[in-house]
């Protein structure tokens, strides 16, 4: 019986990878920060990530999406990865997880 990975398992692996990427100005990972709006995985294991940045002129606007793409591509099961940046809706602190707010002393 061949070991088959499903898209849900892969989605969880992708989230775990995203939690290793940190915003350089805020000591919280980009997932808990609420910068990841959606992760799509199709049956060919092509991954598309819809994400935002804390501000349009964020200092890592060029490098952060590339880091996200590279880390996702490093997963063996992933066929391809694409990151799309959006500012609709704009990021606000309301998008942060409780964990992130606690980490930053906002609770």
Relevant terms:
single chain, alpha+beta, GMP Synthetase, Chain A, domain 3, 3 helices
Give a quick rundown of the structure.
The chain has 107 residues and is an alpha+beta fold. The chain has helices at 7-18, 63-73, 98-103, and strands at 36-41, 46-51, 80-85.
Going by helix content, strand content and strand pairing, the class is alpha+beta
What would the CATH topology be? GMP Synthetase, Chain A, domain 3
**Oligomeric state:** single chain
Q: Indicate the CATH class.
A: Alpha Beta
Question: How would you describe what is shown here?
Answer:
The structure is a single chain. This protein is α+β, with helices and mostly antiparallel strands. It has helices at about 5-20, 65-75, 100-105, and strands at about 35-40, 45-50, 80-85. The protein has a three-stranded mixed beta sheet, covered by helices on one side. Strand 2 (about 45-50), helix 2 and strand 3 (about 80-85) form a beta-alpha-beta unit. The termini are far apart. It comes from Siansivirga zeaxanthinifaciens CC-SAMT-1.
